[in-house]
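Thread: quick sanity check before group meeting

JM: Hey all, I'm pulling together slides for Thursday and realized we never actually wrote out the predicted structure for the chain we discussed last week. Dropping the sequence here so it's in one place. If anyone has concerns about the input, flag it before I start.
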Amino acid sequence: MKKSSFVITILSCFFLLTLAVNHCFSGEGKLYIVGMGPAGPDLITQRAITVLKKADIILCSPGIQNRFRTYVRPDKVAFNPWEGIHGEKAEKLRKTNRQEWLNRIKERRRFVQNFIVRKIQKGKIIAMLDGGDPCIYGPSLYWLLKGFDARNFEIIPGISAFNAAGAALKRPMTGNGARFVMLTSPFSLFGDHHKDSDDILKDLSKYDITMVFYMALRSMDKLVKEFKRYYPPDLPIAVVYYAGYREKQKVLRSTLGNILDDLKKVHEKWLGLVVIGNSVK
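JM (edit): ok, ran it. Output follows.
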């Protein structure tokens, strides 16, 4: 075979292989990360409903499957993608044996991503359901799809607990002179590996800011202790329990000086969004 013919053959094979790979990931098969809103079906978007109807396979937690029975067919649900890495038991493991928790995440990520790739290659439509808005506070993007090629999935945004909390408070998060809004969690700000947490909080105290903390109720003792170093006792704090749930939603208004005592009067110790700043007055 002549050298020129050999080169042409190799290039042709490479071209065909490229077409085959592109077909696997740009054909009918696709992964959707679907924001399901903070509560139930009354706060889901029409775009999310459309994806659920056409999905061949659904990945979701039992809680989401139960809340959205109208749209999530049981025969389409493959498994709970966050089993073992998300939830109350996983949170306890993270605190007692962080390395084991991280290892579980790696194993689960590998399993979930391999499953998704195989199904996409077969032309299947997969919907991974995330509470709220996955781009604000969602485990799909942060844990399970880390390193996954962004070309292989599409995000369907949803209403966040942050939006539902603002509606419950009947206040704009940028009101009363707040210059900006910060969305975070106690672990993200005060985690053991964050050596500059003290400096950050000290700098933040110089400005009027609305701070919204996800998953904060279990860390309120530490959060209040740190805040008292730089903020006055009358700093407004609100906790919105079950944000977006019509029958269960509850708002607790307090201050930095009183919040720990006020929290003891409420039975719920998990599902509450903490909002700090003058905007919640």
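AS: nice. Residues 52 and 71 are 7 Å apart (CA to CA). The longest helix spans residues 3-26.
JM: adding both to the slides.
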